[in-house]
Amino acid sequence: MVFITPRITVPDDELHETFVRASGAGGQNVNKVSTAVELRFSIFENLTIPYDVKQRLIALGGRRVNNEGVLVLFIQTHRTQEMNRKAAEARFVELVLKAALPPPPPRIATKPTRGAVKRRLVGKAIRATVKSNRKRPEGEDEL
């Protein structure tokens, strides 16, 4: 049983782990031992995760959630299978905790301050005088 919050728990039988050979450095160990962990979790089969948290988990998962609603985490950062298992479980818990946080409140639109408006208008006036100084002076005839 994986405890995420007091309300959210995931039974061990809902987390499916498969072990495959990892890529990268490691010599004979990487060629012989299946150390990489592929953790699969079917989001909609779990009954303890609220629906809104499931929706945020799908959004946070991005490419890691397939069309069937299965979250797939592939971990091969460590050299041992046990450390990769712990890292996969930690990353899963972190992802669900992040999804369990309520979304931030929407931003309330405010008007610019009087000082900000004044600074903007002063800047525009300065820019206008710079551009008007580039014009040919009035009243001068061409030679």
TrEMBL record:
GO terms under biological process = rescue of stalled ribosome
First and last residue of the signal peptide: none
Annotated membrane-spanning segments are none
Q: Where is the Prokaryotic-type class I peptide chain release factors domain?
A: 21-37
Which is one Pfam family of this protein? RF-1
Report the PROSITE patterns cross-referenced here.
RF_PROK_I (PS00745)
InterPro entries, alphabetized: Pep_chain_release_fac_I (IPR000352)
Reading the lineage from the top rank, the first entry is Bacteria
Enumerate the GO terms in the molecular function aspect: peptidyl-tRNA hydrolase activity; ribosome binding; translation release factor activity
NCBIfam families given for it? PRK09256.1 (NF006718)
Which named protein is this? Peptide chain release factor I
Lineage of the organism? Bacteria, Pseudomonadati, Pseudomonadota, Alphaproteobacteria, Caulobacterales
